[in-house]
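Write out the 3D structure for:
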Amino acid sequence: MTTPDPYRSPHGWAPAQLLAEAADAMTRYEPDHMEDYIGHLGQLPAMAGNFQLMIRRLAEKTEKELPAAGAVSALLHDMARAVSAVQGAAEEVAPGARRAHREDIERLENPRNGVQAEKKWNAR
């Protein structure tokens, strides 16, 4: 007898697999520029919000359409609320990164004597 794969579902819906693939993609993440990275950090609240929405919709489906005990949908609603707190924390990441890199961002947005002159620093 084989052990069931927790990431695969014989019925098509495999949220753990989707999230595992996203986590794996992060190991290959290489932003071209730090400006891109800061911009990507700004997408974290939407990512957390989409995860929260997925859990909330599952809770609603469980509550209204599936023959599951009410305690199950209540637990899912609790989980959705907890993820909502993660979304709040995610909203602080991009602004925090901007504050931490204020001088770097200032230099990008307002190069001294133009972009070409600023490149002469050739910082590595």
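The radius of gyration is 21 Å.
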